[in-house]
Amino acid sequence: MPPAHRGWPPPVRLCMAAFLGVVLFGCSTRVREQSVVSNEDPMMEARTAWLDVINRLNRADFKRLNKFSDVPTPVYAQSMHWAGQMFRTDAGPHAAENAATHWFHLTGPGDFDLLRHEYKQRGFEVVVSESAVFTHVLCTGYRPEEFGGADPLAQAKKLADVLLNVPPDLQFELVPADPKYRAFSSARTIGPGHMREWTERIDGVVYPSGIGLLCYKAGDRAEMFANVTKWFPDDFRAKAGSP
After folding, report:
1. Buried b (16+ CB within 10 A) or exposed e, 171-210
2. Measured between alpha carbons, how far is 124 from 78 in angstroms, rounded to an integer?
3. What is the pLDDT of residues 83-94, one digit of tens each?
4. Rounded Cα–Cα distance for residues 123 and 138 (Å)
5. Rounded Cα distance, 98 and 172, in Å
6. pTM, 2 dp
7. Number of domains the chain contains
8. Are the CB atoms for 57 and 111 separated by under 8 Å?
9. Kind plus residue range of the DSSP H or E element containing 124
10. Distance (Å, rounded) from C-alpha 34 to C-alpha 29?
11. Domain span at 76
């Protein structure tokens, strides 16, 4: 019999994903030191709920920012920090040469606050969906023969090498038990609560249109934003027109 949570409606699954985000990303250093590496994928439930939201929302669900500095200062600082950590200098959403457009989405029923960054890199499309605790990098429109050939895991490896500050020995494997997505991971048994560096686990999804890379904002800095659902402060929410 499948686990009961797979029959829960999307809002309930998202609430559980938010709870898991608090537990996994907002835990203390002492708890992280006591974390146990499981033989199962501890991120499957949260990852599925988060990917469901990312794939349900489209550009029409976001409001465009005139300039990225219009976002609240704490969100601006966190986004800049993690982009600097995760992306190569000339490959990220805040690199001036990429001329990215920036968008935001305020949490509504069944979803959560998000930033969206759109730009081109080496001729292919990049859409970065960023929450308080993860960054999802969707790559489409690239030529497979230039990015690892027909093997999607080889494509993911090459795209990660081009865009992200990843170690040279990064390797991905499919997550065989994922019931919904063709997911892959560099370390599928490690939970973010056990991670000291974001590079210790990178997940992703094989989409019909391309590859999505999912990076977790793991570490002490993520504790400032333990609420996975609500990232933007109330004054910005009121001014922007919260749902």
Report:
1. ebeebeebeebebbbbbbebbbbbbeebbbbbbbbbbeeb
2. 26
3. 999 999 999 999
4. 14
5. 27
6. 0.84
7. 1
8. yes
9. strand 124-130
10. 9
11. 4-240
